[in-house]
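Model it.
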Amino acid sequence: MASPPGCEHYERSCLLKAPCCGKLYVCRLCHDEKENHQMDRFKVREVQCCQCQTVQQAQQTCQQCHVQFGEYYCDICHLFDKEKNQYHCQPCGICRIGPREKFFHCEKCNLCLAQNLQGNHKCVENVSRQNCPVCMEDIHTSRNAPHVLPCGHLLHSYRCPLCMHSAWNMEGQWELIDEEIAQSPMPSEYQAATVKIICNDCQAHCTVPFHILGLKCGGCGSYNTAQDGGLMQPQPANEAEPDGRD
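Modeled.
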């Protein structure tokens, strides 16, 4: 079966003519990966049909062979792709994956959020107009949806790098780690080893069994913990006390 036209980022049947350098690329991301500058999606004026190679004004259907360049087309972002319930958000200035009715634009956060967060999140002004503190990717234009943390910050990780708290209920993930640890016993020389930890979720300080797969908090059961010091081995029970004799 033939692969759908397009690239790893989008399915489309045309190439964008970069307004910056005049080169043809499937999408702005492909362009940015190859060139030493970025393509401004809003300035794209021409595309080339992949079917008949006709260069023409950016539009949804080829003026020559009438092939559809994309099931979805935005004439502001010049985004062509298969239908994913996309919509253009005017305040965000870019297209989002919907459906639109399941999202709202928070004026203070200046970002589209899921409807279940309306009146149920901590607003941080212009929160998306920055890079993810974990992966350093621009959050506002990222194709990867960010997680909204209880503290109001956004990132592409399970915990906030600012306060280190878990972003959401991780009990299911902790249970999976429990199972992995149960099936992966440590070598005999480490089975009795313990280590001091600090829990990032409940702030408990405790001593727990050491395992390479994770250190479980004795208070709340979280694996979102940090090791505090080195390994501690128990003293051998049969170690003889010195009796002072030669």
